[in-house]
# Entry
Amino acid sequence: MTRVAPSMTKTRWRETAKTIIERDGGICHLCGQPGADIVHHLRGRRQGGTNHPENLRAVHRTCHYLNRPSRS
Ligand SMILES: [Zn+2]
# Structure
């Protein structure tokens, strides 16, 4: 069986992100400061991470960018 799960729509993802940011009180998981505006996957999608709330943390866009492992 090769049934691929439908990928999350942008709207749906935005809803999820909003929920996660609210759940975390807008506190950035990376720097601990308020004002988180995006959601970060604790376990990367490539490592089998899911969009389950347990795998998601609110972060700042800038913190997320700075924490991104550099790819060569
Ligand atoms: Zn931050």
